[in-house]
Amino acid sequence: AELDLQRSVQAVLRELSAQAPALQSNQGMWRWSLHKKVERDPGKSPVLVRILLRELEKAESEDLRHIIIPLLHTLMYVLTKATGITEELYQRTYAFCTRLLTLPTPYCTVALDCAIRLKTETAVPGTLYQRMVIAEQNLTNELYPYQERVFLFVDPELVSASVCSALLLEIEAAQVTPEACMRHVVSHALQAALGEACHAGALHRKLQASSRRVLEHYFHAVVAAVEQMASEASPSRAGHLERLEEIYCSLLGPAATRGRCSGDPLQDRPPNIPLPSPYITFHLWTDQEQLWKELVLFLRPRSQLRLSADLEALDLQGLGPDRDLARVSMLSTDSGIERDLPVGVDELPAPGSPETERAGLQRKGGIKKRMWPPDFLIPSSWDGPLGLHRRTGRPSGDGELLPGVSRLHTARVLVLGDDRMLGRLAQAYHRLRKRETQKFCLTPRLSLQFYYIPVLAPEEPSASRQPELGELAAFLGRADPWYESTVNTLCPAIHKLAQMPPCLDTSRTVDPFILDVITYYVRMGTQPIYFQIYTVKMFSDLSQDPTEDIFLTELKVKIQDSKIPREGFSPRRRGVAEGPGAELSMCYQKALLSHRPQEVTVNLRATGLVLKAIPASETEVSGFPHCPPTAAPVMDHTCLNVSVTEVVKSSNLAGRSFSTVTNTFRTSNIQIQSQEQKLLTLSLDKDSRRTFRDVVRFEVGPCPEPRSRAQKSKTSWLSLQGQKEMEMAKAKPKSLLMPINTFSGIVQ
């Protein structure tokens, strides 16, 4: 058994090292088959943990960093499911993670997350499994009230109906009942704590025969024992074992003592305790407001007609955007003299008390400024790097944005499709953030995570169309090799599943490969990569307000052939020879490593241009002949890569001729205007449904963070005071970034 597992682990390592081209057809299958071997025979879990630990320690000693994060995720996934893991293995794994904290990101970030979870799991075995099942299956429990849901969005215009049907059938077939989940939680907790002393067969039969009421009783008893012990400052493994022994004896009665001294090991082989797939809802994306609506329903089910009390209270605290918040200070009533203060006012509250947490930095007397919680008005925790220090066992990205309001819900939004689908997701995210500035409904209670699985149409030639529509997936694969191996290889398997006839025989057990990979991705993909969203303002008439939209991956500009005389256009200048394309005026800000502002203005004739927000694998920058090339890092995905097809005029004996040359440069923002009567056609995110015609001028720049009227009034009030330059710098809006979760983030 150990030799078979060792071979499977070596196959995963060869796949990561890209030393075996013959394995490319099986990419993504080796990790899945490795987990399936342990799932079918749980007794192999300690053996696999030892093998993975040995390989991790070898990679550490030989500085093979590219395999550390994939093996660490694989190890943590095994430890979450397994029972019977010795304390020595937990301690070795924890010690290994602490040694990784000296490495740069993303290694230290992933290691810290694993170390935090391992510390609790070592003292209270079964905690990770219990919390994951309770949150993912939305089981009601007061001691662990966290809930998660996976929202799977598919655009029916981009993904075929056969693929949608196949995915929906596989998701529905994997759903389990709440009773089954409670049985799994009770059985896993008792086996993880008691080990060989647990009569697994008798426990399984007893739970199967128990009624719903009895099952709920023991479920809540086990959860209470685990959570109360895990919440202690110094949890005791012996104390945890004693409490679960009482529950075990109460559940089995006399059979509990008989099972410790008798039983046929062949007949009483420990039954497999599966880790149920998370609760996934399938959605066809047909409405622009669909994401917002589904998230609101997740927070507030249809059965509840009103918002919860803590959310309703927000409007009563004077923090709503509809209030008059221009005045941000209030006059203090004390004199500011120390001897006039009441007795005891100088006494500091006890450390760790709510008064200490709320106090912050305060001064005596004078003008007291009103506290403006930045995460409330500017929910930056959605688009900034997640903090490393998270509370043990809680869903990633949790934390209190307002006193008394916790993020109990985690929405994992998974989209399937190509770059066009990601463009629609960026639109929905931007629209959602704008609505948040008007009504604070989601931000205080919801942790929002984005996931992406590329699904490209199989009928399109792989050499031409698919790389165009899969540029962001290719970038994620270059940034995170484990994403490339695990997620980017799913597309052929999804189309193969769609071609298979549906299996109507429910008695036959089928391993759902695609659903298992999706589950692994949403559980272990906790490290986001942030992508800049760009806003584009399009003018069809310079005397009118522009049309605004956003894009995530690409803006393509074409010159319209037809000439339409329009008012406000000056006649074509003399001396400009008629040729292909149009005369364009470009003004852009160069992207420099020093971030110093340097503006460039160019007039040229061009047939078109492309603005890409996702860099190619090997981006070469060649500026215009009269402009030096920009100096931005190749992996920099927070600036635009602009390719201009310039028309070059040449004269010879045969007359004038025209040729084209492509110039590329990087910029953070750009303005382009047609100097002739030829108009422009703009296409956003490669989506034919998002095409704008008859454009005279357009401006592109980073999309600013949506701000409420309260923030704007505060900014205007502060700008009237002293230190204008400092206040203007502080008031400068942050750029809106959209996170997409991967396994490790960007691996340099």
Automatic annotation (TrEMBL):
It comes from the Eukaryota. GO terms for molecular function: 1-phosphatidylinositol-3-kinase regulator activity; 1-phosphatidylinositol-4,5-bisphosphate 3-kinase activity. Residues 340-364 are annotated as: Disordered. GO terms for cellular component: phosphatidylinositol 3-kinase complex, class IB. It holds the Pfam family PI3K_1B_p101. GO terms for biological process: G protein-coupled receptor signaling pathway; positive regulation of angiogenesis; positive regulation of T cell differentiation; regulation of natural killer cell mediated cytotoxicity. InterPro entries: PIK3R5/6 (IPR019522). PANTHER family: PHOSPHATIDYLINOSITOL 3-KINASE REGULATORY SUBUNIT, PHOSPHOINOSITIDE 3-KINASE REGULATORY SUBUNIT 6. This is Phosphoinositide-3-kinase regulatory subunit 6.
